[in-house]
Design a protein that fits this description.
The chain is built from 6 helices and 7 strands, in the order H-H-E-H-E-E-H-E-E-H-E-E-H. It is of the alpha+beta class and about 180 residues long.
């Protein structure tokens, strides 16, 4: 990763608020492509971030966010299966709508601080990003490192972990710095 791309990644990793709204302000039309939504195994760190025992059944939703025709973000959200009949039940019917609609329009939802992450080739996170990118773009994740961020949202005592990985093409753009004030909803 070039120094410029690493600097761009840091801007996106720390940008507060709705990533979808920032992407809209940055590049216009944002489209959500759902890759999968199912009960699936957790990746390293997810159980601990959610305060769950390893092996707890969780719903996993993976999407790619596109700006125009370009895929720019691979995202993975994880919620305990028990939360799907409670505070996060709307997640099941979300389809191709952005997750932001559930997270930022509800004053009962709180968020932990954003945590920047860097996942090298060979890590389970890089492997998942690579699989998603092959599905969407027909090619592997185009970098040796996945620059990402994660945080946990809480609603009525139940967690929802959100992980967002930024495509190298997005980070290479000289205009890729996230806008400071996203368009209001």
């Amino acid at each position: 990763m070039t120094p410029t791309a690493r600097q761009q990644a840091r801007h996106w990793q720390r940008a507060p608020g709705s990533l979808t709204q920032r992407l809209f302000a940055w590049g216009g039309e944002v489209r959500v492509q759902r890759l999968r939504q199912q009960v699936a195994p957790l990746l390293p760190g997810e159980a601990a971030d959610l305060g769950l025992a390893p092996g707890t059944r969780c719903l996993v939703r993976e999407v790619v966010l596109h700006v125009g025709d370009a895929p720019v973000v691979w995202a993975r959200s994880v919620a305990p299966h028990a939360a799907l009949s409670g505070p996060w039940k709307a997640l099941v019917g979300l389809g191709t709508r952005p997750l932001a609609a559930l997270l930022f329009d509800d004053p009962a939802v709180s968020r932990t601080p954003l945590r920047p992450q860097w996942h090298p080739r060979g890590s389970r996170w890089h492997q998942r990003a690579d699989e998603a990118w092959r599905t969407v773009a027909g090619q592997p994740w185009p970098a040796s490192v996945v620059a990402a961020r994660s945080s946990v949202f809480w609603r009525r005592g139940m967690p929802l972990r959100v992980f967002e990985a930024f495509s190298p093409a997005m980070l290479a753009s000289p205009t890729a710095t996230p806008p400071t004030s996203p368009r209001p909803r």
